[in-house]
Amino acid sequence: MLEIQFIVNGKTAIGELYDDEVPLTCKAVLELLPLKMDLHYAKIAGQEVFSMIPLIMPVEKFSNVTDLKPGSIAYYPGNQMFCVFYGKAQPEECGVTVFSELKASEEFKAELDKVWECQGTQMIILQPGSDKKEEKYKHLIGEKWKDLWERAPQDLIELLKKRGFSEPVGPVIFAAGDLRKISSVVWTFREHLSETGDFDFQIFNRIISSGSRIIGGWYGLKNIEDAFQEYLRMIDKKPEDIKVIIDDMVLFAGRVALWADSLIPWRYFNDIMIEKKDWIAPENRISLSINRDK
């Protein structure tokens, strides 16, 4: 049985690959290794950490996240996510390919728990015995974005530095949400193209242009806005290359959105919503059926 190795904060674990059951997914993941990824904590699915990888492929063997057992390692096509379900799961209707089983000590799992408070923790994934060197993914839009998979765009760093009324929290959270919307739109059009061969550039251009203007105008993410506009120009000039361009755009949009997500202290917001009693006005507590005094 083939294995992969994980390293987080000096602690190691093994993933046993299901290369007989899902050979295509296992082969695709192995071809990407070695990888360094910034870990994010699940917002819905329970004890799960994940990161994005430069891989676009369909579900090979359907599994529902709700039914996964602890230790499942899966690939989620919709957001190109490498997912490690290391503990108790919570219900989430979502289709993934489970391609490996985690074999980890409690000490390793404790490092994954810490991601809830420290998003962006690095995890290294290796294939034991391989001397292959890490290869950077290169986007079609040029050298300016060559380090996108290693570090957050400067636009987002500047957004985090803002100070003012509801700054930086308001712009950061709304920017993350709007970037995720753009990512979802690009993925949806990509899926429609893959399934039908049809691509309505006029509608796509209108949606992405509108969304990117918000990204640049509201939040000051001008370089990211320009990047989306460059993708639109590329599609318009070379429609025959639409499949290659849209795949690259999917990865760009998702990666930028995930960097924005890493700026948000989800753990602390969750604690506030559970523990704080005065974050909703009394009259709205009644209409929302919330009684914070209980």
Structure overview:
The chain is α+β, with helices and mostly antiparallel strands and 294 residues long. The chain folds into two domains: 3-126, Beta Barrel (Cyclophilin); 143-263. Helices cover 43% and strands 19% of the residues. The chain is built from nine helices and ten strands. It has helices at 23-32, 106-113, 154-160, 169-196, 201-219, 222-237, 242-262, 266-275, 282-287; strands at residues 3-8, 11-17, 35-38, 40-41, 46-52, 62-64, 72-76, 81-89, 95-103, 122-126. Strands 1, 2, 3, 4, 5, 6, 7, 8, 9 and 10 form a ten-stranded antiparallel sheet that branches. A hairpin with a 4-residue loop joins strand 4 and strand 5. Helix 4 runs antiparallel to helix 5. The radius of gyration is 20 Å and the shape is globular. 33% of the residues are buried. The mean pLDDT is 93.
Secondary structure: elements and pairs:
Blueprint: E1 3-8, E2 11-17, H1 23-32, E3 35-38, E4 40-41, E5 46-52, E6 62-64, E7 72-76, E8 81-89, E9 95-103, H2 106-113, E10 122-126, H3 154-160, H4 169-196, H5 201-219, H6 222-237, H7 242-262, H8 266-275, H9 282-287
Antiparallel strand pairs: 1-2, 1-10, 2-9, 3-10, 4-5, 5-8, 6-9, 7-8, 7-9
Helix pairs in contact: 4-5, 4-7, 5-6, 6-7
Order of helices and strands: EEHEEEEEEEHEHHHHHHH
* Biggest sheet features: 10 strands, antiparallel
CATH architectural label of the largest domain:
Beta Barrel
Give the overall form: globular
Instruction: Kindly report how far apart the N and C termini lie.
Output: 53 Å
Q: Using only CA atoms, what is the Rg?
A: 20 Å
Helix content range: 40-55%
Q: Mean pLDDT, rounded to whole units?
A: 93
Q: Please state the oligomeric state of the protein chains shown.
A: single chain
Number of folding domains?
2
CATH topology of the largest domain: Cyclophilin
Helices and strands: which structural class? alpha+beta
Low-confidence stretches: none
CATH level-1 class of the largest domain:
Mainly Beta
Q: How many individual helices? A: 9
Strand content: 15-25%
